[in-house]
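Key idea: predict the complex, not the pieces.
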Amino acid sequence: MVKSWATLGVDLHLELTGTGVRKGLTNALREAVRSGRLAPGIRLPSSRSLAADLGIARNTVADAYADLVAEGWLTARQGSGTSVAQRPMPTRSVTSPPHRRVPSGPAYDLMPGSPDLSFFPRTAWLKASRRALATAPHDALGYGDPRGRVELRTALAGYLARARGVRANPENIVICSGFAHGLMLLGQVLRGRGLKSLAVESYGLDVHWRLAERAGLRTVPLGFDELGTRTEELAPSGGPAGVSAVLLTPAHQFPMGLPLHPDRRAAVVDWARRGDGLILEDDYDGEFRYDRKPVGALQGLDPDHVVYLGTASKSLAPGLRLGWLVLPPSIAAEVLAAKGGSDWSCGVLDQLTLAEFIASGGYDRHVRAARLHYRRRRDALVAQLAVQAPAVRATGIAAGLHVVLRLPPGTERSALRAAAWQRLAVHSLDRYRHAESTVGRTDALVVGYGTPPDHAWSGALDALCAALSLGGAGGADGAGGVEDFEEFEDLKDFMDRGVGGSFPG
Amino acid sequence: MVKSWATLGVDLHLELTGTGVRKGLTNALREAVRSGRLAPGIRLPSSRSLAADLGIARNTVADAYADLVAEGWLTARQGSGTSVAQRPMPTRSVTSPPHRRVPSGPAYDLMPGSPDLSFFPRTAWLKASRRALATAPHDALGYGDPRGRVELRTALAGYLARARGVRANPENIVICSGFAHGLMLLGQVLRGRGLKSLAVESYGLDVHWRLAERAGLRTVPLGFDELGTRTEELAPSGGPAGVSAVLLTPAHQFPMGLPLHPDRRAAVVDWARRGDGLILEDDYDGEFRYDRKPVGALQGLDPDHVVYLGTASKSLAPGLRLGWLVLPPSIAAEVLAAKGGSDWSCGVLDQLTLAEFIASGGYDRHVRAARLHYRRRRDALVAQLAVQAPAVRATGIAAGLHVVLRLPPGTERSALRAAAWQRLAVHSLDRYRHAESTVGRTDALVVGYGTPPDHAWSGALDALCAALSLGGAGGADGAGGVEDFEEFEDLKDFMDRGVGGSFPG
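Result:
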């Protein structure tokens, strides 16, 4: 699996010390091109950028590139950098699979769900960590309050009120190991209350649905239209039977990208109040809104009926495993009981560091910088698509780290196939549609533009545009999607892992 | 709750900046004495030590002490430091409870389960953290392998083989959020296999038993004698029915303190092999053995039938929430399925830091220093008890962070009462005895000498010896234990929390 250049280096066992660096890098790159891991036409990162990623001298990278240009593996052109040389693509044939098998992993990962991990503020985080550990009392390092550290809950209460309109105080916040842990706890509580099903949106993440199902809750999809999820279907008359909880992404529907219409927000709150229903609000990327004013959290409308779920997975990094629940008083004790008599889940050092990071203003600065960073990517994506694949319509672009690209009807499979040839990990919209949804299928791709590291972004965008200009034209191989391509099994595996396991929020 | 001087400061809202420091400290200390939070006779930390803890100038502390000596709250004697002045203790009476109510929290926490948190190697940890974050590939910060980071699993495989005789490789190690999380995962797996009960030791932690019970497993205690837990009772004939898994502390029985006898080790492994039983080995403090050669892990005898559970909670700090399972191949997939499709539990930064800390030798250095630190405390405890409470016999002293103090028959309740008057949080051995155990009761206390921070240690030891010399003499109030003292409700609450919730391992 190659997700970034840095990984490529590690993965290929690059000898990055001593005199072997240049030779090791040259061999690794040559092998990556030879094996197809780097597809023809892909633009390589600048020597400066790759050198920074690998922590080696820029000249070493430039020398390695020059060697491979000389050998014919790469091409260099003034003004457009270094690319993998064009060679004939393998043609599809069922008679000689071993030869045509495309090697493992994508060249570019455009699946949604991960922020740009190279944008994680390592230096600022370490500084906050040092400050936090310098002032923490000794017993902060012991077994702690099951709600999590009070420093973090206090910082979050202020931040969430200010940035997301959440009505929170340190007492009704519970820290958890990311969204997945929060949803697992809530699933246990709802099942313990005797609930048998959870209403969900027609579009969403199957990994979330499976977490709920693991807790014993059947997921029942609501309808969806241009105003968002049809929350009025929750009305006691005519709505799904036995449902008294609903999981929603009100600020930025995942993956469709639109905010829940005010009428629908009102409808779901009315429903919750009438029958003591519970709304689970997944505010996974509420920080990232570009064009209009921020859409506040639904929780602000009714803190007694909304459980707010937030996470550092999109704003910082999933690897922190830090999320938070803001709980109505009626459910707080049950959630804490599910979590355990002490905080058995969340390491205190990252909690203290995040508290310090928020309190010192570092988190706000990082979010602002990240918002600009992702907005630039979104603008580049929309602009380049308009030129190179004008038949494709980008939607859900006002916020978040992904877009939905609507394709001309009948072209989705050829687009997926073209993307696979470019070694792009990218999903059709259909992958995010609940199996029981009655909403009609749409030809569309979900593209996460937050995922690639900076140096890979322009190459990823080029590859996507190339795939869509080919795919959108309904190329010669239009009949086959990636789903039935034996050659792409490894890529499929990668993408299955992505949706199935690696994106819990 | 006052667990350390540093907390005392925080708790009392000490103004620790500007010109108000001396006044703030003086007021806080006076209030602590007035309220009984600091009991008469308790020795205060040296001004140097308290100043270091609070991060203020030593003279400021010395001045505050001098003020309070002048006011009569404290006494200072050449050579024996500063103590809380002796005043008449409140006498017990049922007619005026508000007056006699002893205020909340212990002066000293001698419950086992937490290491000396002031000994956490903050500086070395931060350095390792910086090195780890400087070299981590970007995608280490993303959603990860459900087993945990490979860097940590690799470092642990080497360390556990070397230090504990565990047969491990990075592939069969799973990182978890401390022992409690590991036990929860294993409980789910065993229940999923259809098990209805789990054999446990006659002595142990009720919080562990309750975790197993929460997973749907009844806990069935084995007998116990001078060779340790009677594992031969696991034999199919005559043993608890329906049991095919057992939870043990073979290296250092908790809390009795002796290693499992070689015959008993052999018996349990034989049992596991005959009927495909599973041994859950809780190696909570295997690093801390003082007198004889280390007792290797049982897992080394039969990696196919032993799940090894290790933790950083004793060797570093519970707040890290880092533990590890070394799994037999037969159960690995089920444990990973229980953990989730991705690592939703454990933050990567602490994992990477611990990997770096182990790989750089920092962990070994810390463990060696901690071993010396705790050994000195144990030696002081044993020596001072021998002089001041010669009727008390310290057992289980060869390893770990706690001892079992055997009391003269019939004196346990008076000892507990005397300890409560000294505001000591300390438990009787009976608190660790399984309700269904047939082992006879013994008058004994379990004393965790690892818990107090360094500056509080000598005061804690003095208070303990004072309590035991009074208690052991069967003082005037010998009839009443802390259990039936309304005055000590807050202390009881604290101790209940300790066993019930704050010590999951």
